[in-house]
Amino acid sequence: MSLESAIADLWYRYEDGLTAADADGDDLATLDTFLRMLEAGEIRAAEQIGPVDWAAVGWVKRGVLLNFALRETQPRSYGGVDYYDVLPLRETADLGERGSRNTPDGTVLRPGSYLGEDVIMMSPSFVNIGARVGDNSLVDSCDVVGSCAQVGDGVKLGANTLIGGVLEPVEDAPVVVEDGASLGAGCRVTSGFVVGENSVVAEDTLLTPRIPVYDLVADEVHYGHLPPERRAFQRYVESSVSEEELIPGSAYKPAVVATSLEEETLEATQREGALRE
Q1: DSSP 178
Q2: Which contiguous run of DSSP H or E holds residue 54?
Q3: pTM above the 0.85 mark?
Q4: DSSP label of 52
Q5: Residue 109 bridge partners (DSSP)
Q6: pLDDT tens digits, residue range 138-158?
Q7: What is the largest distance, in Å, between two alpha-carbon atoms of the chain?
């Protein structure tokens, strides 16, 4: 039986009433194999299906959820701190083999997370179950990469950046930051938003499908994605709520403005990459 079929069978039994108390050694062995394959990059929670479209890999997300549903909470310890969870933290021996590094005092990797080659993970930072961080990417201090999020190759996540997790519904696509993108400090990317490759996002920008992206290059308005090769920053535009008596005068709503990627921005990004080599 393939791993996908084994997860499908477990999911069927779970929906039929299987609980953590009922799960046997074979069930847990299947879940352990599933986590190891995620950590090795052999399976992943999302796949690209078009130029700007990504889709969830449903059976993988079900496998992630089963690891919470079919395991008992146990007392554990990390760095001298006692805590309770269904899973221990991820083993990191494979990171050295890939040339990746996670600095001490607060880098946390949950099981089922994948780090590619030559990744730098600064402390404190957190990569959740099912998330994938590609080769030569930087996860800076105080960053969070949420459940099943997909971060491409050569990506820079500025300090205090949140890449949101998407677990349920199973069919909802995770947040994606494509290859070569650079996010400034304090950015927030949530709810399945896709950041196009080689884009540069200014600090403190909120990217979510509910906020319009005014693309001045293509003269279009996008929801849920930032096209490739754009420079994006947060602005506020007038809102129709200002017509209501509740708020006298003008009221404003957040928006994102996307312009062409200036040559000087590319050069600055390349210089920063050279400093990290």
Answers
A1: -
A2: strand 54-56
A3: yes
A4: S
A5: 127
A6: 999 999 999 999 999 999 999
A7: 65
